[in-house]
Design goal:
heterodimer, A: 111 residues, mainly beta, six-stranded mixed beta sheet, five-stranded antiparallel beta sheet, 11 strands, B: 117 residues, seven-stranded mixed beta sheet, four-stranded antiparallel beta sheet, globular
Chain lengths: 111, 117
Amino acid sequence: QKEVEQDPGPLSVPEGAIVSLNCTYSNSAFQYFMWYRQYSRKGPELLMYTYSSGNKEDGRFTAQVDKSSKYISLFIRDSQPSDSATYLCAMPQGGSEKLVFGKGTKLTVNP
Amino acid sequence: EAGVAQSPRYKIIEKRQSVAFWCNPISGHATLYWYQQILGQGPKLLIQFQNNGVVDDSQLPKDRFSAERLKGVDSTLKIQPAKLEDSAVYLCASSLDWSGAGTDTQYFGPGTRLTVL
């Protein structure tokens, strides 16, 4: 079992839709949870970062963590064509800066 | 603030040839990372430097890959000899410091896309 599992999609939605992206993880030692966004032919950029269980909101983006289920989600409200990218979940291994990434979910928002 | 710079952006080589990638991190960033991203996969850490010392190289195939970070600034990653399965994007990232908790934001460069024929 991989440490971090993420459905690679692809996911295609119309503009304005609510998007849900998810990851599961197996290592209960993971304490921090990150979402990176990667545009085509670019490096990943940190989108959101959360530590505790519950929700964290930033504009149209909401990150949700359920540590009891080892499940994290990223919701995008009122999705825009500019949100079209690959979304990667990532978690640092305990006691280090080593990030373990999911495979990424490719999202396309159609105008 | 200038971002992480990488060169070349693209490289095509034959198998068994050697290749080198260069990375210039964000000014003042102590920690530098090299990741390998195979098509359809998330990035995988190859090596992490804190200043010019290696913190983690557990996933670096040391029989063919080498990396150095002279003077704690720029870094080069070398592959010699290259194999077909080395075809990937090689990403360099940097972070301000090393907290050991995984909380320092890593800033990624655009990557070098390597194709091995």
